Amino acid sequence: MAADDKPLRADAERNRRRLLDAAESLFCERGLEVGVGEIAQRAGVGRGTLFRNFPSKEHLIAAIVVERMSGAIVRGRALLEDGNPETALFEFLEEIVGRQQRDRALFDAVADTFLANPEIRAAHAEVVGVLDGLLERAQQAGAVRGDVSAMDVLMLIKGACQAATAFEHIDPGVTDRQLDLVRAALAAHTTTQPLRGRAPTLSDIEHAFPPAVPSDPVETATA
Amino acid sequence: MAADDKPLRADAERNRRRLLDAAESLFCERGLEVGVGEIAQRAGVGRGTLFRNFPSKEHLIAAIVVERMSGAIVRGRALLEDGNPETALFEFLEEIVGRQQRDRALFDAVADTFLANPEIRAAHAEVVGVLDGLLERAQQAGAVRGDVSAMDVLMLIKGACQAATAFEHIDPGVTDRQLDLVRAALAAHTTTQPLRGRAPTLSDIEHAFPPAVPSDPVETATA
DNA sequence: ACCTGAACACCGTTCAAGT
DNA sequence: ACCTGAACACCGTTCAAGT
Fold it and tell me: Which residue spans within B50-100 are E strands per DSSP?
């Protein structure tokens, strides 16, 4: 619901793209603290145009993150089609983790924006959906233990993501190494005791963030 | 090296403590974006006093993080004394992860500050040291696989940390669950293929951040 | 030596005026 | 409809004046 409702005027659409491209490359180069002024300048538009397209700088960041995530989703769907059940899951995990490496702090912002931004929540839900498909196939093939959920796995690869963003340029291979450890944790033939608690699910998150207000905090009338 | 060099005047020392306490509780309550003005006010001092004690807001945050980390270090040392080799390691991991839960975004800031702040690097090195001791004992007891390093483990628990900060209040038990998965990854009796790459070590980090300049970027002469 | 708060610089956001 | 850039608000940081 929402997103591409009104077809936008031609030049407006073009400006929006330019802003996204400019922001993406600037964020990649120098991190999230680049000013909106510089972004607008690089895009060849005024500052006001940026805020016409995106309600705030955070929304701009969120839009880029969403684009990145949908890239991963496409890859994941392809793996669901052809990939072999036993390995496709881990190829998808590598895909996700690999994206962290390219965009530095971009994904760090997700943790915060997560809470508020509905578009990111939607993209996240799709990632979990694809991951769930890949996971179930791997489980039915007997390659992965049956008592874990997609969100279990998503949390598990956080360490690999950190390795990718912070240490890959120092020690190439840490990321693969972390993923190997994740593999070991998910191996089906473990004689380890069963996991405590219940498998976390998407609705746990949805439940925590009700539709909510359009983000503007209600102003308290000053006596 | 550094830290408590000069014994500080009595009132100055007291102001420093008040600032740390005020900042700690305010950060806990409303996150890192609380203004320095409000922190100084809560501490009962002027804004200037804050910047006399801490070169920047980030340094203030770092100082709090360091205090928290040394709390964990104390606990870890105690576990090295008496705790039994097979379980002490995981008790320490629970200790670390538990701290994330209490302080919300406080530890998120570490990932960034990490790079620059030497005091945090020092505290971090101590954590790795203690963890290394606990890990080695567990390995010699045959409870944990022998091919992992302390930093391997530190990265692995990142997922558990995220669970602790973001999901524990929704689904109590996720953190324990994640730690169980870490346990499975570290189990000695895995028949999994060996890990790729080499075990990451502390000197990998040290090597990446040379003593460095006092943080002020050299100004480029104009024209 | 240390404290204070007014002043400064910077950056995200808005909005009246333009096309 | 959309674009623009000057103006605004906010916040981290500095510094001259005080004790």
Answer: none
Shortest-distance nucleotide from B8 CA to C1': C1
Q: What is the pLDDT of residue B10?
A: 82
Question: Which phi and psi (to 5°) does residue A4 adopt?
Answer: -80, 60
Q: Are A198 and B173 in contact (CB under 8 A)?
A: yes
With a 7 Å cutoff on the CB, does A194 touch strand C? no
Give me the pLDDT at residue B160, please: 87
10 Å Cβ neighbour count for B202?
16
- Residue in chain A nearest B162 by alpha carbon: A155
Q: Residue B38 carries which side chain, given as an amino acid letter?
A: E
With a 7 Å cutoff on the CB, does B39 touch strand C?
Answer: no
Which is higher by pLDDT, A52 or B112? Answer: A52
Can you give the distance from the CA of residue B16 to the C1' of nucleotide D5 in angstroms? 44
What are the structure tokens assigned to A174, written together? Answer: 């840490």
How many A×B Cβ pairs under 8 Å? 130
What b/e readout covers A115-126, taking b as 16+ CB neighbours within 10 angstroms? Answer: eebebbbebbee
Bases of chain C within 7 A of a CB of the protein:
1-7, 10-16
Q: Which three-class secondary structure state does DSSP give residue A143?
A: coil
**A187: β partners:** A144
